[in-house]
Structure formats: C-alpha cells, structure tokens
Amino acid sequence: MRLSQRVQSLKPSSTIAVTTRARQLRAEGVDVLSFAAGEPDFDTPERIKKAAKAALDSGMTKYTPIPGDPETRGVIARKLTEENRIPGLTPEHVVISSGGKQSLYLIFQALLDPAGGPGEDPPEVLIPTPAWVSYGPQAELAGARVVEIRSDAESGFRIRPEQLRAAITPRSRILILNSPSNPCGTMYSPDEIRALAAVVEEAARTTAPDLVVVTDEMYEKIVYGGIDHFSFGSIPAVAERTITVNGLSKAYAMTGWRIGYAAGSGEFGLRLAKALSKLQGQMTTCIASFFLPAIRVALTECADEVEMMRRAFAARAELMHGMIGTMPGLVCPKPTGAFYVFPDISAHFGKTSAGDRPIASAADFAQALLDEHHIAAVPGEDFLGCGPRCVRFSFACSEEQIEAGMKRVGEFVAGLG
Ligand code: PLP
Q: How far apart are the first and last CA of the chain?
C-alpha cells in the first residue's frame, strides 16, 4: 500500500511511549497512578443519559439535518448569546459536529488553502504555545504553516499583545486562542483578552485583512482561580472574525459522546456555518440523532452537576499545586482553569535519577518517574514552545490519588542528583 504524503508527514505522538509503558506495567500487576487523563473522571450526569435513552426508545434513529436540528442549534445559539455575550447569533449560525476536534478540523479545512505552487508561501496559523496537541497537525493537514507565539511558566503561559503584533503578517489567516488552556491550566483575564482583540482589530484593518480568530473555549466551565471566563467573540469589533468552538466533553463529562459545535457572528458566521455544513455533509453527515435532546438537557438543566464538578476540580487544583510547590526546581503557575498543571522541570535536566537514569528531557523525566515510582504523566514535547521543558499532570482523579501520587513525585524529585 502506498500511504499519502499527508499521513506520512503526520508526527507520531511522543506521549505514546509513556502510555504504552504504563499499560505494560499495569498488566504486570504494578500499581500505576495515572495523571495522564485528558478527560473528567466523573460519569455523565444521569439526566443527560436519560434524555438520550428516551430519544432512542422513541425511535429517534434517523439522519438529522447536517448541522443539527433547529431546536438544538437554537439552544446553543441562546447559550452563546446569553452566557457568552456573543452578538449576532441565530440557530443558523451554529454547526454541531462529532466533538470540538471535528469542529476545529472542519474550520481549518474550510478556511485554508495550501500554497498555490512551488516557491509560494503557505498561509500561516498563529498558535500561542505550549498548546493543545491537535492544532498544529490539523493546520498543517490543511496546508498551513504553523507560527508559534511562545510563552513560558514565568508569564503564566500567556502571550503579550506585542508578541501577537510582531507575529502577524499579511499571510496570517488564523489565530488560535485556548483559555482556559490545555496543557497549561492557566487563562487570560477579560482585560488581557481585550488587549489581544485590539491587536487583531488593528491588524485586520492594516496588515492581515483575512485574519480570523478561533477561540477554543472547551474548558470555560472549569474555572476556579478568581478569573472570569471571557469570550473573545463577545467583543463587537472582532465578533465578525471570531469563531467560538466548544463542546460537551469537558464541562458535562461527555468525552465519549463526541459532541462539539462552532459558531460565528453575523454575515461572517452564516457564511462559515454554510461552509462547515458543506464539508461535514461529505464527511460524517451529522452527529448521532438521539444525542440532540441530550445536548438540550445538558445546556439547560445541568448547572448543579457542572458546579459540583467545578468545585471538585477547584479543590484538587489547590491540593496538587500546593504539593508541587514544595518540590525543589519545579516552576508551576497556579492553575486557574481546566484540570491540568504544567510545571517546568528543566532545572533538573543534566541530573540522574535514583535509579540511574539520565534526565535530559521531559520525556526522560516522565519515563523515569513511571519506571521508578509508577506515576504516569504526559511529557510536554508535543505541546510545542517551552513544552519540552514541562510535564503535564492532570487532576481529573480523586484527592486520595493526588495525595499519594504527588508524594511519590516528591520522592522522585528528591532523588535526582
Ligand atoms: N480543545 C482542547 C483544548 C482539548 O483539550 C480537547 C480535548 O482534549 C479538545 C479541544 C477536543 O475535545 P472534544 O473533541 O472531545 O470535544
């Protein structure tokens, strides 16, 4: 078989080594504590499951309109209007897809063309890094060149407006924002978002007329650091060049259901919705039909369940960050959103573990931590930017596990010399 260049050029994930080793150790009966999860440990709220079961029992088993039925798109449009304060939205502006990941994939495919020929420059996708692992590969699959805007642990993993200004060129087509952030666990304040929006607005008038902002707000409900979640698309001056992407995976503990959506304001949003629907119509058609009533229940009836999970994450964030703070050489901004901490562990590069393993990278650190103390964490190599100096610990697990696990991490760090 001859594989396409497209597939051949996709980079394999550097996290696979740790995941495979963790599985192997577990199979040998070793008590591995995993902090690698990218999904809530809670079950989907009961009433959401009931709505899907009832829809299935009532015979809701056929294709639906490609972007979702008008009623569910209406509930999402209302949520984005009332909660996120995004102007100019109707049900027609919303496209429901099989996960935020699919929404993002459709957006890249809908907005980007590869370079026209040899010697021509490809379009540019600006990604503040460290960043979630799929933005880069998805942008490259659509033919774009990734332009990183780097941040670090000291700056709370937030880019500054002047960095954004310097990165924008006439070829800039998409800026990705992800607040709260996976893997960083930090977020932008409303004023910081406004300052970035001012740069986008100015650039769109001058150097980069085609610039669109894709704001991935997947973790908007999991915030606990005193910073309010603020939607980029709520700023009128940039609303008609902003696409808000969200989904039910994280806020409602529904990762396995695969439900996401995208929307933009006004005329821009209508054109976008038509383009995404056209693409989706040739890919997956629509999401599972009997999920549609479940989406409506999640978005309108589950505030209590969401709040229960938010509080649990808040307590775990405090516990995990507190314990990491006692470990010498780990630099870790306090998490304010999502369920991750992303300490910079590079002060330990050049050392050797108690088990005699050299530590020259985040991957070495994660591998030795797993082999010697049976803790699974995600090394930051795939997250770009300063990611290769960091390791991601997820706190989508119990407080007991955090206490036991972070004790082991502390012992590992103390043994480095
Ligand atoms: N965006 C971010 C930042 C994520 O962390 C994830 C999942 O890990 C996604 C998007 C995709 O979520 P889903 O496809 O489950 O909606």
A: 49
Residues of the chain with pLDDT > 90: what percent? Answer: 94
pLDDT at 14: 66
* 267: enclosing H helix or E strand: helix 266-281
Q: Does the structural domain 5-43+304-414 have CATH classification 3.90.1150.10?
A: yes
Nearest-atom number in ligand 1 for the CA of 178 is: 3
Q: Does the predicted model carry a pTM greater than 0.70? A: yes
Q: For residues 346 and 86, what is the distance between their CA atoms, to the nearest angstrom?
A: 40
Question: Cα dist. 15→196, 364, 405 in Å?
Answer: 32, 11, 19
119-132 pLDDT, tens digit each: 889 999 999 999 99
60-301 CATH: 3.40.640.10
Distance 2 CA to ligand 1 centre (A): 31
Which residue's CA lies nearest to atom 8 of ligand 1? 38
Q: Tell me the domain boundaries of the chain.
A: 5-43+304-414, 60-301
pLDDT number for residue 48:
98
